[in-house]
Design goal:
Number of strands of chain B: 10
CATH topology of the largest domain in chain A: Rossmann fold
CATH class of the largest domain in chain A: Alpha Beta
Radius of gyration of chain B: 28 Å
CATH architecture of the largest domain in chain A: 3-Layer(aba) Sandwich
Structural class of chain B: alpha+beta
Strand content of chain B: 15-25%
Structural class of chain A: alpha/beta
Order of helices and strands of chain A: HHEHEHEHHEHEHEHEEEEEEEHEEH
Distance between the termini of chain B: 10 Å
CATH superfamily of the largest domain in chain A: von Willebrand factor, type A domain
Number of strands of chain A: 15
Oligomer: heterodimer
Distance between the termini of chain A: 79 Å
Helix content of chain B: 25-40%
Strand order of the largest sheet of chain A: 3-2-1-4-5-6
Largest sheet of chain A: 6 strands, mixed
Order of helices and strands of chain B: HHHEEEEEEEEEEHH
Largest sheet of chain B: 6 strands, mixed
Largest interface: A-B, 128 and 111 residues
Chain lengths: 426, 312
């Protein structure tokens, strides 16, 4: 879909969207595409001295992996490096928990410079993960394009507050398409719990690292993922609590947030002869109870349900999704012909609801990420015969046709005979 | 008169015998299943020559799902607990089967058995039932790998909007561990998936056609400004043009612009096309029926009318 690979500057207004509906292919690959940005956040706390990865220290493994990654960064990716616990060796928690700095700014990578910067690192201080995540988010800046943080750490947050998992969810909820991937350099249960929570909250992944090669290849993979990401990030939208107040959407992908049990309404304006296709995914970005579901309904302006899509499930999941399509019949009645202008549009509302629930200890806000994808195509003109071209098949068909042919032949023969008889008698 | 009758009866019997033979011959070709559609639909030797390298990455969400072709063995390195997404195309009349093999981490580093699941969704992210195959399987604590498979129902070219029938377009597959020891999270695993499709044959040849296959939307959305007046309604023609252009360009894009194969927009049209062509063995059956009816008609006529030159 090159034709649709336009840079969407924020929430592009309808006219702007449609006027560029078919740009030439060259324009689509133009330089205005925001570069994918990745920041590696490396834990340089004292515990990185531990020598338990391939016989060397965790720090040595991380440095070796970083060098490989810096060599392999795709040209288009803007890479930055941030450290945490790299400078303050003291005991003061206040200072130690603000010890996170940008080692290499996010931008096109100068491989030599970046490697030199990494080489200077020595395991030192505390592990302020939450603080470092906020810093990394700021480093990546705002605007379009993929934004990814790769967090490499060997310990749980030693600062307590802010809780890194809450920070991650809060950053993800800002609607800046941030994904945090985490790599744990130890198999400790608390680290695993914290890092997988951070990853889950942002739609990222958690990896337990056991050797240098695995560390390097995984980071490379994550950086590549940023480069391979779809060119357009979904537009943010906030659904209303009822149809009449709902935002009017045009075809495209949207993100929203939805709390447990909340209903979100969106509206579409369709012309007769158009078919709406909508799909929705509600992501479980936190610990949820075992059973869950999602319901997507298309409702007309009077509140009558047109069609619904639903899915439910139980157990471990990342998202639950549903979809629907609804064709608006083409109308050619007289009233519409009288109008010289386009026929009036019909409002179709989409209602998204979920039946996720969670233990009382789980935070309710911000809501869970919702991805809504809307497309409008021409609807089929008519209902079709279920058989291909109305053709038949099978022995019964042959029998029936033969029998009918035989009967027709007999009838025809008798008629001919009767006519001959009549002619002869005359 | 009597002799004439006998002659005409014999002629009718001959015609009937000929009809029977014709029917048998037609039915024979039909039953042997040598339909051109089947020949077109099979991957055959042409697939090998210009095939690009199979993807070695998997997506992590519906939107970032890696596009694969049919008959392409895609691999991915991942962490235990990841949700891996791929998307493949399927056209009408095909019966897609997905096979996935997960290479588990060494048994020494694991802490028990895990359950793996393969979920399939259509282009609208509607869950699609596995008509056959093991889509969920438990891997014992010492297993080296686990193999899953899922065969969908036959893809129809058209269905009513209220039905959940599989339709031509993209299909998403999601591979993940749905149950695993918490301590095993994050361990390295390898995954290999392959989507194949079998021609379902004329019995499943359905009528109709969607105006566009169910393909994922990749462009960002746009909200209509509520303060706007008459101009706020979406323009049908332009919206349709955009869609048609997008749909039509799909295959060329995939082949032409050298985009990384992992991008979802690069989903190629399946070999037989989205709608599988016009041919099905129903044509042969119906034609055979027509021939039989004609022969039977001639036979019946001959039988009833009597000799051509009565009294001769």
């Amino acid at each position: 879909m090159t034709t649709t690979r336009r840079l969407a500057a924020g929430l592009c207004v309808l006219l702007a969207c449609l006027s560029t509906s078919a740009p030439p292919a060259s324009a689509a690959d133009g330089p205005e595409q925001a570069p994918p940005r990745v920041e590696l956040v490396l834990d340089v706390s004292g515990s990185m001295r531990a020598r338990d990865i391939d016989g060397g220290s965790r720090m040595a493994a991380a440095k070796k992996a970083f060098n490989e990654v810096i060599d392999a960064v795709p040209e288009e990716v803007h890479l930055g490096i941030r450290t945490l616990g790299a400078t303050y060796p003291g005991e003061d928690k206040r200072t130690g928990c603000r010890d996170s700095e940008q080692l290499y700014p996010v931008g096109p990578v100068d491989r030599t410079e970046a490697k030199t910067a990494v080489a200077t690192l020595a395991p030192t201080g505390w592990t302020p993960i939450g603080y470092a995540l906020r810093g990394a988010d700021a480093d990546l800046g705002t605007g379009e394009g993929t934004r990814r943080i790769v967090l490499i750490t060997d310990g749980e947050d030693s600062c307590g507050l802010p809780d890194p998992c809450d920070v991650a969810r809060e950053l993800a909820a800002k609607g800046t398409h941030l994904v945090v991937d985490t790599l744990g350099l130890t198999l400790d249960a608390k680290v695993r719990e914290q890092l997988s929570c951070i990853a889950e909250a942002t739609g990222g992944t958690y990896t337990a690292v056991q050797n240098t090669d695995q560390l390097a290849s995984r980071i490379k993979q994550l950086v590549r993922r940023a480069a391979d990401a779809p060119p357009e990030e979904p537009a943010a939208v906030e659904g209303a609590d009822r149809c009449a107040a709902a935002p009017v959407l045009t075809p495209g992908v949207y993100t929203d947030r939805q709390e447990f049990g909340q209903h979100r309404w969106y509206r579409l304006e369709l012309l007769p002869g158009q078919e709406v296709r909508a799909s929705v995914s509600v992501a479980a970005d936190r610990a949820v109870n075992r059973d869950y579901g999602v319901l997507l309904r298309a409702v007309d302006a009077r509140g009558r349900e047109l069609v619904r899509g639903t899915d439910a499930g139980g157990g471990r999941t990342d998202a639950v999704s549903a979809g629907l399509r609804y064709p608006l019949a083409a109308r050619d009645d007289v009233d519409l012909d009288d109008e010289e202008l386009k026929p009036a549009t019909t409002a179709v509302c989409l209602e998204v609801s979920n039946s996720f629930s969670a233990p009382a200890s789980v935070k309710r806000t911000p809501g869970m990420p919702v991805e809504l994808s809307v497309d409008v195509v021409k609807s089929p003109d008519r209902a079709y015969d279920t058989a291909a071209f109305g053709l038949g098949r099978g022995w019964v068909l042959l029998g029936v046709l033969t029998l009918v042919g035989l009967l027709a032949g007999l009838l025809w023969g008798w008629v001919s005979r009767w006519r001959i008889t009549v002619r002869r008698t005359n | 008169m009597r002799t004439a009758h006998t002659a005409s009866a014999a002629r009718a019997a001959r015609a009937a015998a000929a009809a029977g033979l014709a029917a048998a011959a037609l039915a024979g070709t039909v039953l042997l299943g040598a339909s051109p559609a089947a020949a077109d639909g099979s991957p055959g030797p042409s697939a090998g020559a210009e095939e690009e390298a199979a993807p070695t990455e998997a997506g992590t969400t519906f939107r970032t799902a890696t596009a694969i072709r049919q008959e392409q063995r895609a691999t991915a390195a991942a962490s235990l607990g990841d949700y891996l997404y791929w998307t493949f195309p399927a056209g009408a009349g095909q019966r897609p089967t997905v096979r996935a093999t997960v290479t588990l981490p060494p048994a020494a580093s694991r802490h028990g058995s895990s359950t793996w699941q393969l979920d399939l969704f259509d282009g609208l992210r509607r869950r699609q039932a596995c008509a056959s195959g093991d889509s969920t399987k438990r891997a014992s604590a010492d297993a080296e790998s686990v193999t899953l498979s899922c065969t969908l129902r036959t893809v129809r070219p058209w269905s009513e909007a209220w039905s959940n029938d599989p339709l031509p377009g993209a299909y998403y597959l999601r591979l993940t561990a749905v149950d695993l020891p918490e301590r095993d999270l994050g361990l390295p695993v390898g995954a290999e998936v392959e989507a194949t499709a079998r021609d379902a044959g004329g019995a499943q040849a359905h009528g109709g056609e969607l105006t566009a296959p169910l393909l994922p939307v990749t462009r960002a959305g746009g909200i209509v400004d509520p303060s706007g007046t008459g101009a706020s309604a979406p323009d049908a023609d332009e919206a349709e043009d955009a869609d048609e252009a997008a749909d039509g360009d799909e295959a060329e894009d995939a082949a032409g612009d050298g985009r990384a194969p992992s991008q979802p927009a690069a989903l190629a049209e399946p070999d037989g096309g989205w709608y599988g062509g016009w041919w099905s063995d129903r044509w042969a059956w119906t034609a055979a029926g027509g021939v039989l009816a004609a022969l039977a008609g001639v036979a019946g006529h001959t039988l009833a009318r009597g000799p051509r030159r009565p009294g001769a």
